[in-house]
Design a protein that fits this description.
The complex is a heterodimer of chains A (about 250) and B (about 425). Chain A has about 250 residues and is an alpha/beta fold. Chain A contains ten helices and eight strands. Chain B has about 425 residues and is mainly α. Classes of the chains: A alpha/beta (about 250), B mainly alpha (about 425). Chains A and B meet through helix 1, helix 2, helix 3, helix 4 and helix 5 of A and helix 9, helix 12, helix 17 and helix 18 of B.
C-alpha cells in the first residue's frame, strides 16, 4: 500500500499475543473480518511490527521500553500513520499514553471502541449470524482498558446489541478484579500464595452460571480460559473476545 | 488573670511544638526527588474539593462513609466552637459569641451538640469494628502493635473530647438554670440536657465540673493536635494537599524517564546532545531519597484504612504484597531517615534502605500493576508508582529480576516479542486455519 503511495485509513496494531498466541490469532482474524465487513481501508505492519515495550516497562526496564518505543515510532512515522486500532489493551495504553512523550503522536483506539463507533454509526449490527438471544454473558474488564483508561462502556455496547442476558460480576468496571496477567505477571510464575488470581476471578464469573465470559484482552483470554479449564468446564462456558462475538453475530 | 496567662502559655507551647514537627515533616518530604505538579491548578482544586472536601471516594463503602461523615463534619463544624473557647480562654470571657450572634448562637450550639452525639456514635462503632467485630480490612502483617494502638488512641481521645464537651454544656446549662453569676443564658442544649439529671445540685461542684471539662476539652485538643504528626490521623490535614497534587494523567500511563530518553536517543543518534535532567543519580528507587516528594507526601497522608489492600489481587490471593504496607514502610523509613538527620546530620548513612530492609523483592514482583489500589484510595495515594520505582532500581541498577522476567526482556530485545518467536513469523496468523 505504501509502495503505491497510499496510506491506510487506520493501522491495525496486531500486538505480540495477536501475532503469535494461537488463541489470540483467531481474535486477530476476527478483527480483520470486521474491518473488511464494514469496508475500512486498513493495514498491518506485518514483520515490521515489534513489541510496544509494555511488559518491559511494567517490569521496570525503562531502557528496553524506550528502545522499542523509539524504533516503533520511526516505523510508524515512516508510513505516515495517523490512526491506530489495537487488538490489546496493553498496546492501546502504551501507544496512546506513553508514546506521545517520546514523539509518537497518533489517534489510538482499542478494537472495542472501534466496534462501538461502528455500531453507533449504524455500520455494524448483530444480524446474519449466530443468535446470542437469551445467552447469559458476563464481561470481565481488562485493567488496562478499564481503570487505566476509563473505557468501560465500549465493550458493553457490543454486547448490548445481542439481545443476550447480560450479567455483571460484583467486582466490575472500576472495581474490576485483575485476571492476574498484568504488570508482566504473564511471563513469570506467581509468587507464593493461597490461590492463583485467575482462579479467584473465574470463581466469581462461574458463580453467575454464564454461557459466555467475555473480555477484550488476549492476556485476560489466556488467564480466564485457563481458569475455566481448571474446572473442566470448557464445554459449558466459553471465554470469548468482544471481536469474536461481534464476528459471530454477523456471520463473518 | 493567672488562668488567662496559663491558657496563653499552653496555647503558645502547643502551637510552637506543632509547627516544629510540621517543619520536620516538610523537610522530610523535600528529601524526595523533584516532580512538577504545578500545572492545571483549577482542575487540581476541583479534585481536592470533590475527593477530600466532598469525600467522594468514601461513598463506595456506604457504612464507613456515613460514620466517617459524622466524624468529619463534626470535626470541621465543632472547630467553630474551639474558636470561641480560645477567645474565652485568652480574655477570661464566657461564651463570647452568644451576645453578637443572638438567636443564631442557640442554633449553632444545638447543632454542635447533635454533631458531637453523632461523632460519638461514629467513633464507638469504629472502635467496635476494629476491636470486637475484627473487620478483615484492619488486619494484616503491617497492622502490628503500634498501628492498632494508634487507631484506638485516636478513637478513645475523640470519645473523651466529645464526652467532656457534652458534660461541660450540661453543667453550664444547669448553672444557667440556677442563675449562677457569669453563666449567662445562652445556647440550646438538645443533647446535654439529658445529662443534667446526672449532675449534682451543688453550685460550686457544678462550676468545678464545668471548668474542668472546659480545660480538659481545650488541653485535649492541643494535645491531639500535637499527636497528629506522629499518627496516621495526620490525614485530616494532608488529605487536602495530597488530593490537590493528584496524578492527573490516565492511571495506565507510567512516567517516561527523561534520564533514560537521553541515553536511548544518544544510542540511536550519535549526534544527539542530551538535555540536562534534574533526576537523581540512580535509575529507579532503592531508598526514600530516590522517590518523588509526592510519593513521600502520600506516605504521610496514608491513614491505613486498608481499602487498597482489600482490593489488591495479589493480597486477596494470599501473596505477601500489601499496598498499605508499601505506604507504611515508606513512612517508617522516611521517619527513620529524618531521625538520623536530626541526630547525625544530613549526610549520615545507616546502611539501610527501603528496598530489602523494609520492602522485600517478593512483594514488588507480586504486583500486577492493575491500579485497583490507586482507584480505591479515598485520598488518591499511589502505591503503584513506588512499586514501579523499586522495580526500576532492581532491573536497571542491579539486573536483579526473576529469571523468567529476564528471559522476557531477552526475547523483546532479540525478537521484538516477549516470547521466543521469530519476527519473520509475525504474520502467520493471516493463514486461515
Amino acid at each position: 500500500m505504501a509502495a503505491k503511495g497510499e496510506s491506510p485509513e487506520i493501522l491495525f496494531w496486531v500486538g505480540c499475543a495477536g501475532s503469535f498466541d494461537e488463541r489470540a490469532q483467531k481474535i486477530t482474524r476476527d478483527i480483520c473480518k470486521i474491518l473488511q465487513h464494514v469496508g475500512i481501508k486498513y493495514a498491518v505492519l506485518g514483520t515490521e511490527e515489534s513489541c510496544t515495550g509494555d511488559p518491559a516497562k511494567r517490569a521496570g526496564n525503562e531502557f528496553l521500553f524506550q528502545m522499542q518505543a523509539m524504533s516503533n515510532i520511526q516505523v510508524l512515522d515512516g508510513y505516515n500513520i495517523k490512526k491506530i486500532v489495537t487488538g490489546c489493551p496493553h498496546c492501546f495504553n502504551t501507544l496512546r499514553n506513553e508514546y506521545p512523550g517520546l514523539g509518537g503522536n497518533y489517534e489510538v483506539i482499542h478494537h472495542s471502541q472501534l466496534i462501538q463507533q461502528l455500531i453507533d454509526e449504524g455500520k455494524l449490527k448483530a444480524e446474519g449470524g449466530e443468535s446470542f438471544k437469551g445467552k447469559k454473558i458476563t464481561f470481565h474488564d481488562p485493567c488496562y482498558l478499564g481503570r487505566a483508561n476509563n473505557v468501560y462502556e465500549a465493550p458493553r455496547k457490543a454486547l448490548e446489541i445481542l439481545d443476550a442476558d447480560l450479567v455483571e460480576m460484583k467486582r466490575c468496571k472500576s472495581n474490576g478484579l485483575c485476571c492476574g496477567a498484568g504488570g508482566a505477571q504473564m511471563f513469570k510464575e506467581p509468587e507464593k500464595g493461597k490461590k492463583d488470581i485467575n482462579i479467584e476471578r473465574i470463581d466469581e464469573a462461574l458463580a453467575l452460571n454464564p454461557n459466555i465470559v467475555a473480555s477484550s484482552c488476549p492476556f485476560c483470554m489466556t488467564m480466564l480460559s485457563d481458569g475455566v479449564k481448571n474446572y473442566n468446564k470448557e464445554q459449558e462456558v466459553k471465554v470469548l473476545d468482544i471481536a469474536e462475538i461481534t464476528a459471530r453475530a454477523n456471520g463473518l | 488573670m493567672v488562668l488567662q496567662i496559663l491558657f496563653l502559655i499552653i496555647a503558645a507551647a502547643a502551637i510552637a511544638l506543632f509547627s516544629l514537627n510540621v517543619r520536620k515533616i516538610i523537610r522530610n518530604i523535600n528529601l524526595g526527588r523533584p516532580l512538577d505538579r504545578s500545572d492545571r491548578p483549577s482542575e487540581r482544586l476541583a479534585i481536592m474539593l470533590k475527593v477530600a472536601f466532598g469525600q467522594s471516594k468514601m461513598a463506595k463503602r456506604p457504612v464507613a462513609f456515613i460514620l466517617h461523615l459524622f466524624v468529619y463534619i463534626g470535626f470541621v463544624i465543632i472547630n467553630l466552637e474551639v474558636l470561641e473557647i480560645i477567645i474565652d480562654g485568652l480574655f477570661g470571657t464566657h461564651r463570647i459569641f452568644a451576645d453578637p450572634l443572638g438567636g443564631l448562637y442557640n442554633v449553632l450550639i444545638a447543632s454542635f451538640e447533635v454533631l458531637a452525639a453523632l461523632v460519638l456514635i461514629g467513633v464507638i462503632v469504629f472502635f467496635a469494628r476494629r476491636n470486637i467485630v475484627h473487620l478483615k480490612r484492619f488486619s494484616g502483617t503491617e497492622m502490628g502493635k503500634w498501628p492498632r494502638s494508634d487507631a484506638n488512641i485516636i478513637l478513645i481521645v475523640e470519645v473523651l473530647l466529645m464526652g467532656a464537651f457534652l458534660t461541660m454544656n450540661a453543667a453550664d446549662y444547669k448553672l444557667q438554670q440556677l442563675g449562677t453569676l457569669h453563666y449567662i443564658n445562652a445556647g440550646s442544649f438538645p443533647v446535654s440536657s439529658f445529662l443534667v439529671p446526672l449532675l449534682p445540685d451543688s453550685e460550686s461542684t457544678l462550676i468545678a465540673i464545668e471548668r474542668s471539662c472546659w480545660w480538659f476539652h481545650i488541653i485535649g485538643i492541643f494535645a491531639f493536635l500535637n499527636y497528629l504528626p506522629y499518627s496516621k490521623h495526620f490525614h485530616i490535614i494532608l488529605a487536602f494537599p495530597n488530593t490537590y497534587f493528584s496524578n492527573l494523567e490516565p492511571k495506565g500511563e507510567f512516567t517516561n524517564m527523561a534520564s533514560v530518553s537521553n541515553e536511548v536517543k544518544a544510542m540511536l543518534d550519535p549526534t544527539y546532545t542530551p538535555e540536562p535532567v534534574p533526576e537523581g543519580g540512580r535509575f529507579g528507587a532503592k531508598d526514600i531519597g530516590d522517590l518523588s516528594w509526592k510519593n513521600l507526601l502520600d506516605a504521610y497522608t496514608c491513614t491505613e484504612c486498608g481499602r487498597c489492600t482489600s482490593v489488591c489481587p495479589a493480597n486477596i490471593t494470599g501473596k505477601l504484597l500489601s499496598p498499605r504496607k508499601i505506604m507504611m514502610d515508606t513512612r517508617d523509613r522516611l521517619e527513620e531517615v529524618g531521625k538520623n538527620i536530626d541526630k547525625h546530620g544530613k549526610d549520615h548513612q545507616d546502611g539501610k534502605s527501603l528496598l530489602d530492609n523494609y520492602i522485600s523483592r517478593e512483594e514488588i514482583w507480586a504486583c500486577t500493576t492493575c491500579n485497583a489500589c490507586t482507584d480505591a484510595c479515598p485520598v488518591n495515594i499511589d502505591p503503584l508508582s513506588i512499586i514501579v520505582e523499586l522495580r526500576r532500581f532492581a532491573v536497571m541498577e542491579e539486573s536483579q529480576a526473576p529469571a523468567s522476567i529476564n528471559a522476557m526482556f531477552g526475547n523483546v530485545e532479540n525478537n521484538g516479542a516477549p516470547w521466543k518467536y521469530a519476527a519473520v513469523d509475525r504474520v502467520n496468523w493471516a493463514e486461515e486455519k
